[in-house]
Design brief:
By secondary structure, this protein is mostly helical. Helix content is 70%, strand content 6%. The relative contact order is 0.04. The mean pLDDT is 77.
Length: 175
């Protein structure tokens, strides 16, 4: 890395004169630099100051970018865990009043359990399963009866027991 530092002597001298006092007693109104100020020392201080700031300016932005990337990585890696933990805590701890219910408060877990119990357990699950099984069995029987009838008509047609065109009429009605 290369850093170029430009020292503006005019700035140094201007700052020295800003800190100087005016000599009104001599009647000249001239600027007088107090004898205790060493110009070489002031130039040295200014060079050190400007060099330090030039180096810091060169290093500052890449460091900021690295720090920003590291912070974003940390946030991305922990954000979902934090959100998940907070949501679980909210679900298990916080109570609310569902609409259409009494003034009783529930946690979400309690509410889901109550709804499940009302929907499944209290409505006699055996009756629900039995009705679904009977409906499925009836549908299968109807399909089997249709298949049997179609097969019977096809065999009668193959043996010549049906008049011409009757087979097509029967099969078209079935579809």
């Amino acid at each position: 890395m290369e850093i170029n530092v430009k020292v503006n002597i005019n700035d140094i001298i201007t700052s020295l004169f800003e800190n100087a006092e005016t000599d009104y007693e001599s009647g000249h109104g001239a600027w007088v630099i107090t004898p205790d100020i060493d110009i070489k020392e002031e130039i040295k201080k200014s060079i050190i100051y400007q060099t330090k700031h030039a180096v810091l300016d060169e290093i500052k932005q890449p460091l900021r970018d690295q720090m920003k990337g590291a912070v974003i990585d940390i946030i991305n890696s922990t954000f979902s865990t934090i959100v998940e933990t907070e949501v679980k805590k909210y679900i298990s701890d916080n109570k609310f009043k569902p609409r259409g219910y009494s003034n009783e408060e529930f946690t979400i877990t309690e509410f889901v359990a109550t709804e499940f119990e009302d929907a499944v357990v209290n409505r006699n699950i055996n009756d629900i399963v039995k009705k679904d099984a009977e409906r499925a069995a009836k549908e299968i029987r109807n399909r089997y009866d249709l298949l049997f009838a179609s097969s019977l008509v096809a065999k009668m047609n193959d043996q010549g027991l049906l008049k011409e065109g009757v087979f097509k009429a029967i099969m078209n009605d079935k579809k």
